[in-house]
Amino acid sequence: MLSNFNLYLYYIQYTELNNIMKIGIIGRPHVGKTTVFNALAQSDAEIGVYTSKKQINLNTVTVPDDRLEKLLPLYQAKTIVPTTIDYMDGGGTSRSARNPDVDISDNIEIEASILAELRTVDALAHVVRLFEDETVPHIDGNIDGKRDIEAVNLELAFADLQIIEGRLSRLTKLLKNQKTPEYINENRILETFKETLEDGKPVRSLAISDNDEKLIRGYGFLTQKPLLIICNISEMQLQNSDQIADGFAEYAEQPQTTVIVFAAKLEMEIAQLDDTDAEIFMIEMGLHQSALDRFIQTSYNLMGLITFFTGGPKEVRAWTLRKGQTAVEAAGLIHTDFERGFVRAECINWENLVTCGSFTQARSKGLLKAEGKTYQVQEGDVLNILANPT
Fold it and tell me: At 61, which helix (H) or strand (E)?
């Protein structure tokens, strides 16, 4: 049951050496999805009403982190290597606007392909329109952010239910002949998901064990993914941004859901200025952080990501890891040989290292700790991996 909610797809890919974190930007028509993309990617992708352009817009942006500059002299390194974000804009299509006089089945293939792409992302960013603009009418004739949130939530729930019901039908047949523990567990999990969705709740509201998560991970359920709600306001609404955020607090209180407010059109204009002009303009507008900085910070928190650092004569590098991941997993991110031959990791918070001025001083003060495989890497850790050759 696909409806006229026009889930345009944009990708934000957090790219590291050996893994990629993706965020898919979704929303109803005329809410400013491409404007948000341009603000974040410092891009100039075409914006407008249902652009018929079908090519992919792709931009790579470095994740700003001034800690790298502060660590650079300690290693006497030649360069810094920040993490990057690949922004991929899936663009629009002239057919994706639903015509109430046309049978829904005429558009299902396009919508299905978009939904299939969304299943590959790690989180969703839903752009919600709160700005007024007479030149860009809302598809429903008026602005109502909560209505739009519920509409898209329903769209995603329908998409998940379609997958679940199809698989449950298949499992019913399989279980007649093969009552394997795997099929039994999968059937149990999917029945729970079905009941949850039919009760109007997303799958992300459920507590799922690691074993169950592994069993259903391949489905990529949309309502299971962490959700970032982007309230897209006008420049005139900036002074009320805190009150606007408070108005959506009920969503921010839901599991794995975060709300952020910013004026995408204004932020897009700032993103297209040089650094000096952008800084001056932001001061004049009372903005303390760019959209990119705030989006990264918010999405990192939502997705449970942290940054750690390594360094040497050639470079000081930032890496992205999930909270709770261990020193040996961090070693494997740097190089698989380090994971196989892992002995220990020397760890210190970046600020303590900068204050000490060197690893030698940090060690003499007892701030440089030797940690084993199970050590959980902390935000801002500087790691020195010791490994046997393999």
Answer: strand 57-62
For residue 369, CA distances in Å to 185, 329, 342 come to 43, 18, 16
Task: Specify burial of residue 148 (Cβ count, 10 A radius: 0-12, 13-18, 19+).
Answer: buried
Give the model's confidence band at 161: pLDDT under 50 very low, under 70 low, under 90 confident, else very high. Answer: very high
Asked if 45 and 57 touch (Cβ cutoff 8 Å), the reply is yes
Q: Quick one: tokens of 135? A: 């030149």
Backbone angles phi, psi at 342, to 5 degrees: -55, 130
CB atoms within 10 A of CB 301: 14
All domains of the chain in start order, with CATH: 324-387 (3.10.20.30)
**What's the pTM?**
0.82
- Cα separation, 225 vs 227, in Å, equals 6
- Rounded CA-CA distance 343/348 in Å is 17
Q: Check if the beta carbon of residue 13 is closer than 8 Å to that of residue 125.
A: no
Distance CA 306, CA 311 (A): 17
For 307-323, the pLDDT digits (tens) are 999 999 999 999 999 89
Query: Coil, helix or strand for 344?
Result: strand
